[in-house]
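The following block was generated as part of the benchmark described in Methods. Ligand: adenosine-5'-diphosphate.
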Amino acid sequence: MWAAQHGLTVAAAVPGTLTHAPLALLPARFPRAAFEQAQALAAPFGALTAAVAADGAFLRETLARAGAEDAFTGRLLELHAATEGLPGRGGGVTLGLLRSDYMVDAPSGALLQVEVNTIAASFAHLSQLTTALHAHLTRWAGLQSRFPAAALPANGAATGLAAGLAQAWRLAGRPHALVLVVVQPGERNVFDQQGLQCALRDTHGIRTLRRSLAQLAVEGRLEGGRLLVGEAEVAVVYYRAGYTPDDYPSEACWAGRELLERSSAIACPSLAWHLAGAKKVQQQLARPGCVERFLAPAQAAAVRAAFAGLWPLDGPEADAVVAMALQHPERYVLKPQREGGGNNLYGEEAAARLRRGDGLGAFILMQRILPAVQPALFLRQGVVSSGPALCELGIYSVYLAAGNEVLQNAPTGHLLRTKTADSDEGGVAAGFAVLDSPCLEPF
Ligand code: ADP
Ligand code: MG
């Protein structure tokens, strides 16, 4: 009931119907120190992503092999090369809406980064609502002794992301222009997206437009670099699509993406930021001395402390890395250059893929993080179930720069996803996890 009233909803399988988002009924325990550490890492990871994205040579070199072995990565690299130097792109404004994901590794006690999402980081709105729902439930069910209000951190995830989009829109200086939300046809996480669009409209007085890449190929055009969709001018392009090959079923979709990339609209993210979020880049940054090239020593050390073990599957070390992984496949995750969940390989599946051998340059190997298990109550499509669960924390942040001046680089809020302890993947949209909120311990 609360979910329906407040829009904590997702589209259901039957078109035109909706259901509540997959939820945990009560907050989950999460170590306070790790939560605060993750928040403190938002600014260093923002600075790192900006520095990496600005280094076209580093991106090209790092992703060359993955691009050769994976057609999707290769195509993004081609588009990057073709558009990188175009004058006037984004009007010199950089906007990143990031979500850096972490798990606390129980054996070591360390907060370790799963990945940083530089494109289409989702669930800010539904997560903010989940925090409000849990505050409501714990208060009205009389559970304050188990979940004191002071242990439930405030969550301005979506409010902050919308404010970032609005600030970038203002920098564009085109009051009649709107924010274009690039969407997947048939998107089910539509209420999460609409939450940001409503905030833009109601709080900031900014109009938005939703279009798929295929629609943009037909309706979009450039006039002196300005992006028009029909008669509407676009100031900011906000991608909630375009990160998976499934978003490009036809050449028209690539044409749509290219049109956006060639325009002077502010892209969130730019293609360089999109590429900077590649798993291959994450692995390269973890190499000795690499992250230190991009950040001041204190920031580099903070970021490095959150790196899990990451190994390349190309280059001279590849054979040794494969041999190491095959000894104990359960200790690793095999990751291709993909986003959106459901793409990673674990255990025996990973081992089989490693033995097959071909095309491994498009993968990286990562230490498997082992979070502590705790009981949870899951609510999915109106049905409650319980079981052992583990948590993944995401920290949203806004990075905004005009030219070389960084105007904002700070966290806005969080996402806690909880999944059954026996499931490997963690996506909410992909059906593995539920939205949750942290109860920070000690209180
Ligand atoms: P995607 O870009 O598809 O979201 P992720 O790297 O975030 O890929 O992986 C998807 C999910 O798999 C994560 O949300 C997490 O639950 C799980 N996962 C990923 N990497 C690890 C890891 N190193 N250890 C344990 N679980 C992991
Ligand atoms: Mg992820």
